[in-house]
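Q: Please design a sequence for this.
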């Protein structure tokens, strides 16, 4: 059995890297150098045709989309309970929050960091402002979810959604308002990023700040 993760430090591959470390499974991490545009290399495009990270190759089969990779890994390791089983009471919340994070929060970050993609370079500032407003709206929504003091998005048990959310909160660290400006999110983040597996991921990727 072989598992290879293609990624770059601090990017969307981080949540998958973290889950692999948390699961304790053997894997290889291949770093792509964005400065050299390695994510657009024809050989890599056969692995992830989007020319983005992450990509995960399991036993020779390539998969992409960060949220999907988390869900795939969670389902391959049911003993850890990172994906509520079909029919489980928290299954619907799990699906809802995974899609919310992947479909609403992540694209807003993509728009913020790649503002030219919104409406061209001439409108990048306006695009960025829009993206920021969307991100803050997402924090508002998640903060309300966490207001009952729950340690994880689904309640008492950690799930794939927590890997994704924690990574996204890190991406806000240099924005006008960070995720830490929402009190319940701040408590949540402080707890999650203190986990040994998160710290290990942070160290292996050579990241700074937000820990
Ligand atoms: N929808 C994709 C988005 C991935 C994405 O935007 N990755 C960024 C890094 S955070 C990337 O590869 N950027 C390089 C590029 O677009 O050329 C996913 O969830 O995997």
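A: Design:
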């Amino acid at each position: 059995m072989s598992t290879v993760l293609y990624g770059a430090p601090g990017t969307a591959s981080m949540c998958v890297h973290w889950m692999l470390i948390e699961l304790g499974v053997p894997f290889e991490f291949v770093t792509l150098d964005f400065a050299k545009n390695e994510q657009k290399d024809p050989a890599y495009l056969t692995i992830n045709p989007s020319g983005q990270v992450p990509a995960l190759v399991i036993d020779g089969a390539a998969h992409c989309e960060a949220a999907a990779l988390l869900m795939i890994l969670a389902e391959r390791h049911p003993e850890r309970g990172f994906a509520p089983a079909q029919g489980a009471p928290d299954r619907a919340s799990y699906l809802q929050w995974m899609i919310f994070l992947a479909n609403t929060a992540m694209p807003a970050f993509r728009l913020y960091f790649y503002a030219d993609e919104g409406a061209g370079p001439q409108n990048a500032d306006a695009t960025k402002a829009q993206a920021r407003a969307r991100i803050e709206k997402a924090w508002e929504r998640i903060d309300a979810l966490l207001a009952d003091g729950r340690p994880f998005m689904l309640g008492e048990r950690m799930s794939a959604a927590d890997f994704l959310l924690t990574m996204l909160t890190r991406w806000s660290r240099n924005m006008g308002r960070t995720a830490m400006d929402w009190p319940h999110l701040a408590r949540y983040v402080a707890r999650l990023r203190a986990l040994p597996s998160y710290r290990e991921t942070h160290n292996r990727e050579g990241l700074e700040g937000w820990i």
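Q: Thanks. Anything notable?
A: Residues 3-81 form a domain with the Glutaredoxin fold (CATH 3.40.30.10). The first strand starts at residue 3 and ends at 7.
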